[in-house]
Amino acid sequence: MQLGFRYYLSDLGRLFTAACLLLLSACQNTDDAEIACSQAGAEATFIAIPSGDFTKANLPVYPEEGTPELVSVEAFQMQSTEVTNAQFSTFVEATAYVTDAERPRAIKQEEGSAVFPVSEEPTENARWQLVKGATWRHPDGPDSSIEGKAKHPVVHVSLRDARAYAQWADGRLPTELEWEYAASLSVPSLSRADSGAYNDRGQPVANTWQGVFPMVNSAADGFHGSAPVACFPAGKNGLYDMIGNVWEWTDTPVSKSAHLIKGGSFLCANNFCKRYRAAARQQQDIDFSTNHLGFRIVKDLHQ
Predict the structure, then answer these.
(1) Tell me: the pLDDT tens digits for 58-104?
(2) Is residue 159 scored above 90 in pLDDT?
(3) How distant, in Å, are the alpha carbons of 187, 198, 281 from that of 237?
(4) Could you count the other beta carbons within 10 Å of the beta carbon of residue 43?
(5) Which residues contact 74 (CB under 8 A, 6 or more apart)?
(6) Which of 55, 161, 202, 234 has the fewest CB atoms within 10 Å of its CB?
(7) Which has more confidence, 127 or 178?
(8) Buried b vs exposed e over 173-191: b needs ≥16 C-beta within 10 Å?
(9) Confidence at 221, pLDDT banded by 50, 70, 90
């Protein structure tokens, strides 16, 4: 069974039970920590990203991130937010497009799309599942919907789906270099690897997982699952949610069947998947989709 990131979680519950008991008190009341979301659902704009040099793989954590290297990137424009359900709905209505998760016989989605169930209660049984009927319209399965989530990032989109939207919107997907460069200009500090996720006091400034994954999420950032785009303050260059919320597709391949994704998601925790960093990279099968993977688009500067 293919589950995108192939998180094998069957034994993690037992490993972290003791630690989770210490965190239960923090999970009893998250109201005080909820984010105001004053900018939630802010209309997407395109931010000019100037030409420049930056250190790729700055402060690497995992082997696949490589070693730091100074590289140059040409100027481009990047959408300020992740593509939302509302934006994707407009695209589908205009083109009658059918996503890969909605056409299961055409690709590897015969058994469904990948869903990691989020819960406000501690659980030892949380794990990735292939759910039949999980699509961008039904992100948690056939009985769910995006009603009330127009401003949440669209998920359950394959690389083909993201490219189709980008072409319709007169844009394209960013390369890994473009994405990482833009993120490096967005985070508060390049001297602290997690500065895009936590401030210098350890408080969350992005939508990630606080607690012990996969058992306990204190939701100190205000969310157990995805958040509406732009809930959290924009980065230094005006881009929202470059770190956390949902992973984002890039147009950089690692093989014929996989591309790189960037940014981490609401499932990235200190104890597991510490990829809420600009340098972090993860490969993803191009014809597979999940409930924590979306995208944003870029445009060439002359557009």
Answers:
(1) 999 999 999 999 999 999 999 999 999 999 999 999 999 999 999 86
(2) yes
(3) 9, 18, 21
(4) 11
(5) 51
(6) 202
(7) 178
(8) bbbbbbbbbbbbbbbeeee
(9) very high
DSSP state of 157: -
Question: Does residue 272 form part of some domain?
Answer: yes
Q: What are phi and psi of 282, to 5 degrees?
A: -145, 140
CA-nearest of 163, 146, 165, 160 to 90 is: 165
Supply 62's token pair. 């995992």
Amino acid (1-letter code) at residue 127 = R
Burial 71-80 (b: 16+ CB within 10 A, else e): eebeebbbbb
The per-residue pLDDT for 7 is 37
Task: Please check whether residue 289 lies inside any domain of the structure.
Answer: yes
Establish whether the linkage from the previous residue to 214 is cis, with ω within 30° of 0: yes
pLDDT band of residue 9 (cuts 50, 70, 90) is: very low
| Amino acid at position 205, single letter | V
Two tokens, residue 128: 């990735």
Which residue bears the tokens 């919107």?
Answer: 169
> In the chain, how many domains are there?
1
pTM over 0.85: yes
Average pLDDT over residues 250-268: 98
Range from 120-124, 241-245, 274-278 carrying the lowest mean pLDDT:
120-124
State how far the Cα of 139 lies from the Cα of 160, in Å rounded to an integer: 18
pLDDT, residue 119, reads 82
Q: Compute the distance between CA of residue 142 and CA of residue 16 in angstroms, rounded to an integer.
A: 31
The partner residues of 70 in beta bridges, in order of sequence, read: 55
Q: Which domain holds residue 106?
A: 12-300
Q: What is the largest CA-CA distance in the chain?
A: 56
**Residue 3: inside a domain, yes or no?**
no
Q: Which of 224, 214, 186 is nearest to 33 (CA)?
A: 224
- What CATH number is associated with residue 281? 3.90.1580.10
Q: Which helix (H) or strand (E) holds 262?
A: strand 258-262
**Phi and psi for 177 in degrees, rounded to 5?**
-60, -45
Closest residue by Cα to residue 46 from 207, 172, 197: 172
